[in-house]
Amino acid sequence: MTDKTDIVDLITGHRRMRRNRKADWTRRMVRENQLTVDDLIWPIFLVPGTNVVEPIAAMPGVMRLSVDKAVEAAREAADLGIPALATFPNVDLSLRDDTGSHSLDADNLINQATRAIKKAVPGIGVITDVALDPFTSHGHDGILRDGEIVNDETVSQIARAAIAQADAGADIIAPSDMMDGRIGVIRQALDAAGHQNVGIMAYATKFASAFYGPYREAIGTSGLLKGDKKTYYIDPANGTEALRDAALDVEEGADMMMVKPGLPYLDICWRMKDAFGLPVFAYQVSGEYSMIKAAGAQGWIDEERVMMETLLAFKRAGCDGILSYFALDVARLLARKG
Ligand code: PBG
Fold it and tell me: Fewer CB within a 10 Å sphere, N or C end of the chain?
């Protein structure tokens, strides 16, 4: 064995991975995962008023929309085939208080939007986030007393807020607060109020992440938030704890689950899908979006390709869908490509 070529042949032999990669048609033939419009959930931000389309500095390309504009956005999303929207309100500061009491108002911004969207575009799913942070003067997801976010009282208020959201026509309630026991209480409350068909997408594993920064500008909590959310969100270091937390949500009646943030937590997506078999959705959060936008704007990365690659990565990690601020752009792109 003196010839170099012989040695190389012996080493690789029949194990030539590149055969399947040699042409576009072979690559398409062996492709394991596809991203389709059915995988997309579009988070949108709401503001009071009419005819308002307000840019968010930290999230280039994302707007806060008044309800009438949100209805137009819903129509466009539905026309493109996006299955569902997730709504997040930027509530007037004068309506925020210590306990987030405005969350219970049947006519608050989130409920107004649900009613208007379901009336005008009944074919699109409306997922409402239930948490107190858009409504509290301190930006926390729960009721703050003596420096502590009190769990059980928060849960009972969130359950009542969930009923108001379901009354307004929400199809799926997504509790994003990470209080203990909330899924079970919300399920019972919804059932007792006659909302057996309203689903629950548990923010099953929500991590205490720095990636939420731009979102807080979007809903106007960045200047308000005192301290951090480490006493209720999960420590980014903990995967097994996240699974235990998710197991409780499953036990308590979650119909589907979410992992948040998305890309840095693909291991959690995979483990959750594997462990429970429930539909798992990743939330590609504001910071993930803004990083791609910023690097794209600088010309450091190809924004469109990175966007598509990240979304495909969620599919590969076992996700059934992705909440993404790119949803509309992606849907348009997929429509163009046919
Ligand atoms: C809180 C909530 C957060 C997000 C949605 N709901 C996190 C937070 O402000 O702590 C973040 C979404 C994003 O970053 O895109 N209930």
Answer: C
For residue 15, name the pLDDT band (cuts at 50, 70, 90). confident
What range does the domain containing 270 cover?
36-337
- Asked if 128 and 110 count as a contact pair (C-beta separation under 8 A), the reply is yes
Calculate helix-pair angle for 286-298, 303-316, nearest 10 degrees.
Answer: 150
Does residue 42 lie within any of the structural domains? yes
Statement: residue 311 has pLDDT above 60: yes
The set of residues, in sequence order, having a beta carbon less than 8 Å from that of 58 and lying 6+ positions away, is 213, 214, 217, 218, 286, 290
Query: Of ligand 1's atoms, which has the minimum distance to the CA of residue 177?
Result: 16
CB 110 within 8 A of CB 133: no
Ligand 1 centroid to Cα of residue 199, in Å, is 20
Burial of 327 (0-12, 13-18, 19+ CB in 10 A): buried
* Ligand 1 atom nearest 286 alpha carbon: 15
> What is the distance of C-alpha 147 from the center of its chain?
28
Q: 119 an active-site residue?
A: no
- Which candidate, 26, 168, 149, places its Cα nearest to that of 99? 149
Residue 220 lies in a domain: yes
Residue ranges around ligand 1 (CB below 6 Å): 129, 131, 133, 141, 176-177, 212, 215-216, 229, 285-286
pTM of the model: 0.95
Residue 292 lies in a domain: yes
